[in-house]
Design a protein that fits this description.
Blueprint lengths: L1 H8 L1 H19 L5 H18 L9 H21 L7 E3 L9 E5 L17 E3 L5 E6 L4 H7 L13 H5 L1 H4 L5 E7 L2 E7 L10 H6 L3 H14 L3 E9 L2 E8 L4
Antiparallel strand pairs: 1-2, 1-7, 2-4, 3-4, 5-6, 6-8, 7-8
Helix pairs in contact: 2-3, 3-4, 5-9
Length: about 250
């Protein structure tokens, strides 16, 4: 009994269970194939597959793990296009409703000030009429951040001292450099990678679902800020990626 409870509490099992439920719901919607239900069905099936492939175990070899993360990014990219979500990522900290950090991608940027109800079980957020207004998914860098947290805790930090702790990413050879500075209206997070983490043409993806390294750093800042953080704009300068961030309210 205790063993079964431990299995149910494991993130990998919960992700696979939720993914299976979403795929089943998506398939059920095809029984009444209206144009809206077909669109929603495809989205649910894709998201369900994403959840079932989610990396939550540390025993996966690095190369396979990296490839799987990129596959998950491709899933999210297809979801945002298929659901016509043009909003930029909102990083959400843990809360009484969220057992771990999430990324919320809204339909439009105007939606981020008043986020809908979100908990661990909600992936697709809809209005009462069924219109999709956003998706809530685990960040690409969640597993990487857990590795970094074996060296330093960001939950014990605040925005005044978190930059010093962010240097752990440099010490672990995840990045060449990283800085976090205040700017008008928010924060400027700049990271230098050994190689460009994405091309200029992928700016929409970078602003909606950043790569694992950038995402892990953004999550660390979110933990220190203890409030939601919205990506306002990204810039790519050689091997450097700059995120202009806006601080939101407490979740």
């Amino acid at each position: 009994m205790v063993k079964q409870q431990k299995i149910l509490q494991q993130p990998a099992f919960r992700a696979k269970l939720l993914g299976g439920v979403l795929i089943a719901i998506g398939a059920a919607l095809l029984i009444n194939p209206t144009p809206f239900f077909i669109k929603l069905s495809v989205a649910l099936i894709i998201i369900g597959a994403f959840m079932m492939l989610l990396i939550t175990e540390q025993s996966i070899p690095r190369k396979i793990s990296d490839a799987q993360i990129e596959g998950n990014r491709a899933f999210v990219k297809k979801m945002t296009r298929g659901l016509e979500l043009s909003g930029k990522a909102v990083f959400l900290p843990k809360s009484s409703l969220l057992s771990e950090e999430r990324v919320y991608i809204p339909a439009q940027n105007t939606d981020v000030n008043l986020l809908p109800f979100l908990d661990d079980d909600i992936v697709v957020s809809t209005r009462p009429d069924g219109e999709v207004i956003g998706i809530s998914v685990p960040p690409a860098g969640l597993t990487l951040l857990k590795e970094v947290e074996k060296e330093v805790s960001f939950e014990d930090a605040d925005l005044e001292n978190v930059e010093e702790k962010l240097q752990t990413f440099v010490g672990m050879n995840i990045m060449k450099s990283i800085t976090l500075k205040p700017e008008t209206g928010g924060l400027r997070l700049e990271m230098e990678h050994e190689e460009p983490c994405c091309a200029e043409s992928e700016n929409p993806t970078c602003e909606q679902y950043p790569c694992a390294a950038c995402s892990a750093a953004l999550l660390a800042v979110t933990q220190a800020a203890k409030q939601k953080i919205t990506i306002q704009k990204t810039e790519h300068i050689d091997h450097r990626t700059v995120f202009h961030l806006k601080l939101g309210g407490v979740v």
